[in-house]
Amino acid sequence: DDMLIGTFNATQRIFQIDFKSTFASQGYSYSIEDNGTNFAGVTGVNRFLDGSDAKSISLSRDLKEDTSKIKGFKSPANGDNQTALAMVELQFARVTFGTGFDKSSDTVYGYFDTLVTKVGTKTNSVILANESLTAQYNAIKQEYDSVSKVSIDEEMANLIRYQTSYGAAAKVITTIDQMMTTLLGIKA
């Protein structure tokens, strides 16, 4: 850890944990709950969890192998279930979440419920916006393609049609010209 420093004096057989001098001068302190021996607390013998961060956290291997080691009491007296009751009460405890102006006080379940609702709402909003923009894009692209792109097959078909129409119109004009010539030739 960046805040603590551990030393072991082999001649006196003393293990000591202290704050580094920069943190000790700022008034930091720590405490270890004594479950029979401080050494167990310091060395992690009584730890419930393994892992170094939220991604790797898991129930300790010892407790997975023997669940009878999970104790719901502070003292070994029969009927002492203070730890278990304290854990149950945590579900009703209000905790402050956030920083600055974005602080809120809620239970862990309430905060999680609110967070999941916000994430779900934003996700749904983004999905709808994406679908709308995709539909707009496709409509604009289709219109653009119909106006700007040239189909060689379509243009060749139009060219043949116009050429045939031009040939037919030329025959009509030629026929009318011959008829006029014939009619004018009869009068003369």
Q: Describe it for me?
A:
By secondary structure, this protein is mainly alpha-helical. The protein has a domain of 71 residues. Helices cover 53% and strands 12% of the residues. The chain contains six helices and six strands. A two-stranded antiparallel ribbon has the order 1-2. Strands 3-4 form a two-stranded antiparallel ribbon. It is rod-shaped. The chain starts with a strand and ends with a helix.
What are the salient characteristics of this protein?
mainly alpha; single chain; rod-shaped; 12% strand; 188 residues; two-stranded antiparallel ribbon; 53% helix
Task: Summarize, please.
The protein contains six helices and six strands, in the order ββααββααββαα.
- What order do the SSEs take from the amino end to the carboxyl end, as H and E? EEHHEEHHEEHH
Mean pLDDT: 78
Outline type: rod-shaped
Structural class: mainly alpha
Strand content: 5-15%
**Main sheet attributes: strand count, strand direction, barrel closure:** 2 strands, antiparallel
User: How much helix is in the residues?
Assistant: 40-55%
Report the C-alpha radius of gyration, rounded: 44 Å
Low-confidence stretches: 31-38
The number of helical runs is 6
Instruction: Give the CA-CA distance, first to last residue.
Output: 124 Å
- What is the strand tally? 6
Give the strand order, joined by hyphens, for the main sheet.
1-2
InterPro entries: Flg_bb/hook_C_dom, FlgK
Keywords: Cell projection, Cilium, Flagellum
Organism: Sulfuricurvum kujiense
Family: Belongs to the flagella basal body rod proteins family.
